[in-house]
Amino acid sequence: MFEENKIVMRDVTNAGLVVSHQIGREMASQLDLEESLEASRYASFLYTYSTHPRELPPLAQVVGSWNLPHQLVEIKIQCSSWRAWASIDSSLFLWRFDGHCLQEYKGEATVCAVGLVKPKPSVFYESIEYVLVLATPDELILVGVSCSDGRDDPCAETSLHQLPKYTVPSDGVTMTCVACTDEGRIFMAGRDGHIYELNYSKLWRRCWKVCVSGGGLGGVISRWVVPAYVFKFGAVDPIVEMVFDNERHILYARTQAMKIQVYDADGGFKKVAEENNLIKINRTTTTKSSIVCIAPLSTMESKSLHLVAVLSDGSRIYFTTSPGNLGDFSKNHPRPSCLRVVTTRPSPAEKVYAGVYYSAGTLLLSDSSTRPSLVIVSRDSSTQSAVGPGILGTSTSSCSRELRESISSLPVEGEILSVADKLHQPNTATTLESLCYGGGDLSVQHVLPRKQVVVFSTNGVMEIVLNRPVDILRRLLASNSPRSVLQNFFNRYGAGEAAAMCLVLAARIVHPEVVISNVVAQNAAEAFEDQRLVRMGEDVEEGEPEFSASHDGLCLCSARLLLPLWELPVVVEKGGSIMCRLSFEAMQVLQHKIRSLENFLRSRRKQRRGIYSRVAGLGDLSGSILYRDDSEYNGSLSNKRQRLPYSPAKLTAMEVRAMECIRQLLLRSSEALVLLQLLSQHDLITRMAKDFDANLQKALVQMTFQQFVCSEEGDHLATRLASSLMEYYTDQAREQVEKVSTILREGCPSYYKESDRKFFLAMGCLDRAVFTSDAEEMEKLAREAFNSLSKVLESADLQAVCKWFERLRFYEAVVHLPLQKSQALDPEGDAFNNRIDAAIREDAVAQRVQCYEIIISALRSLKGAHSWREFGSSSRPVLDQVRNRYICEIVQLGIRFPDRLFHEYLCRAMIDLGLENELFECGGPDLVPLLQRVAGEPKLQATSSATLVPSKQAKYSEVLASYYALKGKHLLAARALQRLVERSSTDSEDVPTLDQRCQYLTKEILQAKNASNSDDLVQLLEGKLGVLRFQIKIKAELEALVSRVEALPGSSESEQSGTNPNIARGKAKELSLYLKSLTELLYDYAVPFELWEICLEMLYYASNSSTNAEYSDNIRESWTRVIDHALSRGGVAEACSVLKRLGSYIHHGGNGAGLPLDTLCPRLEKAALERLESGVESIGDEDVAMALIAAACKVETEPALLSTYDKLIFSTSAILQSPNLKLRLLRSSLVILRKWAMSVFAHQMSSKAYGASLILDAANRYMSEVRRLDLPQRQTEDVYRGFQEITETQVTVI
């Protein structure tokens, strides 16, 4: 046998389906009064009314009688549910129903009308429970009533208090009756036919009356003291009775002429309708009659019928204030718009009654014919049973649509003066009514007490109770009636319904005002299990098996208990707050009843009584009637094969299992109500819901009680609420933690488990540790909490718990608890298994990372705490050394824990937080392979490569290089930096910029220089650095080109230059993603986009490591393109400027290839002559020569340059035979000779003569060449004289 308190969710869920089915039948059987009246409209009189069987106990019985106070004998008496009163002249007597506590109020004028009202809040003192409304011919008076022994206790002593400021003149209007509302409004009817409202407040205007029914001028002026009757013309029809519908806020008034008026009192006050000639409508009797009583109908009786009028012959007329379809109940209390007769009900007898009283479906008629008696007409409950087919069983239903009423009578001595309901205290009544959900006595007899009526007659007071079916059964069981009588009772109400009533008595879940003796409880239990009364289950050949009436009665009783909240949300939102649908008191009552029923079933199971005794030895009682397998069900109903019939023993075992499922459902519901009571007691749901995410808040508001009890989502939510509850008490009310924990552990163990208890005990230790000043005691409590939490990791919110340990600086728990939980969440190590499905592995990693993040959060707090204080210290901030000690403690604890994934996660996190130094210090001996894995080195991480690295790993590789450098391993540091330099990706965001690569490469060169025997490596790296700088320049040129093209309107420049900006942009992006070789940069980027200057630079750079012949042709061609491009762009001046700039770069590198002077000189001189002759550009004689001298910029440049000019001047080429061009060349040669002469003069004496002789020889030859030019002397004279001056100067030097 399973443990009694164990709950199997599968059993609870399937039992919930059974209960839901029964609740559906229960709701379907609860017909509206209008439907029942319509169905019985054509029924015979014998079926409409019936007499109560003589063999059964009576429906009504007198439970007490008292004499009237002697002062009030033969005086007209009025009463309410709380007190009775009578007036004699100017005196008012108020007393309890039993004749005690007589109070007398002595006034100055005759009392005409009296009312009793529960006043509006905050108007009078709290001690004033009620207010008496006294109407005299002269004034209207309010009198306070207070209870001395208890609030709202009908048996309490009362006292009357004068309220002198709450008196207002009647203005000559005599009031006939008073009607009061539950909201404290007071309405009075005057003999002038008007209705007045008596207003009261605690402001300066304490009390005043307003005529609310008078229209036009009379109604307006009556507000200003002038009596309304002054403006009343015609015959006056005074109002003799007023009743108020507190649910719909409608006031009904009956006049002396038997008119019925309807007023809408929802907020304001407005007359809606008036109906007369009502007697003509009622043709159900020939007896002359009149309307003597009107009463509103509650929404539990009918949603479409609103008022009943009772005639003196006992017949009834039913009204509605809605003009639409009566079957449409979609609107919640629509406002009245008319008064319409819907149907009538015939009188139970053809006679006129002396008095009539109607309340909640019960009609009391005072018969004073031969022998005075009180005729009681109430609904026959035997026609209301809702037992019907369950999931696997059927039962005959005795529910009838027609309204059938039972008639009984009680003898009464004397004339009946007044009748009143005796109600319970208002708070109690509200609690009980919230647990009722429509229906007749059968549906609510387990909740409500018996209906009690107080009858005042001339001979005294009688208290009468109206017995319900369960009360009749109780009296039968208490009197040991013959079995035949009990059998008749079961037959009358149906076996299932009678079995449900037996359960109500056996489990003692009726209202406490009915005392259930042990004899009655025992007899009820035996009747519930008596096979002769509750037919046995039977197998049906072509359907599902039928269980016994005991099972049906249990389903019915359980359904009625759970009906008030089963399919409704557990909580409701009101004014921004979330609260339980039922009040704390209502849930307490319901939980007690459900637990009592479950305890009864548990005791019968434990004792092996009844049906449990018939399955002894058949095995386990757990399971569900809905669990089907091939051995028990040979196929389902959908196929055509016939299943094997069940044996009686098998059928009984199935029924026991079904009842066990319902017992578990009751136990689960009881536990849920215990939890909700605790949450409701201190209004904690709103506070806890703020900590939930949006989805959980939505689930909480929308979840029904059925889902809360029967679903996995409800179980999760309830467990979360229980944990939040304990967290609240741990934080806010520590002294009650153990008490609340005990209530949860005993009241709802399926929601609050032993692990939860240990968790919150540990939290209690942490709470005490925080507030202790003893460091040794603090550590002891923290370790105790740590040891306890290590055993209940599944129920601990480690994110919150570890904050407590952080506050205590107990970092052992901060590290170990999350790591232990990560192992508990992934016991198979799926996070490390590359052979399983990737989604499973990623899910395991994600669960572990959530735990790891708790530890990283602690590191983050320490890193960001610049002036935090040591716990338990005085006022000194913690020093950086102490903080670093805590960080190192966390790192060391984490590194020692055997979790490779966490080691990598910790390493990455510390690098991200800038804690590299602490990592280097405390990382331990395995730090190098750890950093290598984090950095993604190919030897240690198969998923990464040397040239394709995730973005964050760049930082990790940099840290690895720093660690290598710190340890003196410079070559390893250089290799780590090399991976960063060569890092590439298809995404520009995942790679370093070219400038960053340049920085990495610079650092790499530095590390290589610090290493030994690394000259070749340094040379190689420096070459790469040069190439990388060319790549940066080309990328910048391409981006500038794109910007220039896009800045111009249209595409003229791109068309003229043949450059597509999109292609250039793409090439620039390529350069930013990947490193290129010098050849690639030259032929794939510089040449296609005509970047000739950069081409020259790269060619000269390449020539430094090769022979000049290899690149001479390319250099010569590139110079030609550079000069041509400069000439086309800015003329000779631009060409000279480019020549100077490039020349300085070319010769800066050392022994590379020189300038192709034989190409540059004639090209520049010829272009200068052409542009000068055409007048396009003004060019000086010295411009070209000086540019060439500046570009060459080497020692002894002039002889080499002069040699080039010498060849040009004395060349036999036809191109160079032009006199003007030769003159241009001679002028440039003159500039070079002068420059050479100045250089020679600055040298030492030993070399002057040799240099001067060379210059003298050249000058003589050029002088002769000038004379041979076929040009006028005036053009050549200045050149000739220049050479002559040089000759004379050099002769002097020699």
Structure summarized in a few sentences:
The protein contains 43 helices and 31 strands. About 7% of the residues have low confidence.
Report on this model:
With 1294 residues, the chain is an alpha+beta fold. Strands 1-26-25-24-23 form a 5-stranded mixed sheet. A 4-stranded antiparallel sheet has the order 2-29-28-27, with no helix packed on it. Strands 3-4-5-6 form a 4-stranded antiparallel sheet, with no helix packed on it. Helix 30 (970-981) runs antiparallel to helix 31 and helix 42 packs antiparallel against helix 43 (1273-1293). The N and C termini lie far apart (134 Å). Mean pLDDT is 80; it is low at 216-226, 327-331, 388-398, 621-641, 866-878, 938-949, 1051-1057 and 1148-1152.
Main attributes?
1294 residues; alpha+beta; 5-stranded mixed β-sheet; 43 helices
Kindly state the number of beta strands.
31
Strand order of the largest sheet: 1-26-25-24-23
What does the average pLDDT come to?
A: 80
* Backbone shape: elongated
Secondary-structure map:
Elements: H1 9-29, H2 33-39, H3 45-48, E1 49-51, E2 60-66, E3 78-79, E4 84-88, E5 91-95, E6 103-106, E7 113-117, E8 128-135, E9 139-147, E10 158-169, E11 175-180, E12 186-190, E13 195-200, E14 207-211, H4 216-222, E15 239-245, E16 250-255, E17 260-264, E18 270-275, H5 278-281, E19 291-296, E20 307-311, E21 316-320, E22 340-345, E23 355-359, E24 362-367, E25 373-379, E26 405-411, E27 416-421, H6 426-434, H7 441-444, E28 451-457, E29 460-466, H8 469-478, H9 483-493, H10 495-506, H11 518-529, H12 549-562, E30 571-574, E31 577-580, H13 584-607, H14 648-681, H15 685-689, H16 694-702, H17 705-710, H18 712-732, H19 737-747, H20 754-770, H21 775-789, H22 798-808, H23 811-825, H24 838-864, H25 880-896, H26 900-912, H27 916-922, H28 927-935, H29 953-966, H30 970-981, H31 994-1010, H32 1015-1047, H33 1052-1057, H34 1061-1073, H35 1078-1086, H36 1092-1103, H37 1108-1146, H38 1157-1173, H39 1183-1192, H40 1197-1209, H41 1219-1242, H42 1245-1267, H43 1273-1293
Parallel strand pairs: 1-26
Antiparallel strand pairs: 2-29, 3-4, 4-5, 5-6, 7-8, 8-9, 9-10, 11-12, 12-13, 13-14, 15-16, 16-17, 17-18, 19-20, 20-21, 21-22, 23-24, 24-25, 25-26, 27-28, 28-29, 30-31
Helix pairs in contact: 1-12, 1-14, 8-10, 8-11, 9-10, 10-11, 10-12, 12-14, 13-14, 14-18, 14-19, 18-19, 18-20, 19-20, 20-21, 20-22, 22-23, 22-24, 23-24, 23-25, 24-25, 24-26, 25-27, 26-28, 28-29, 29-30, 30-31, 31-32, 32-34, 32-35, 36-37, 37-38, 37-39, 38-40, 38-41, 39-41, 40-41, 41-42, 41-43, 42-43
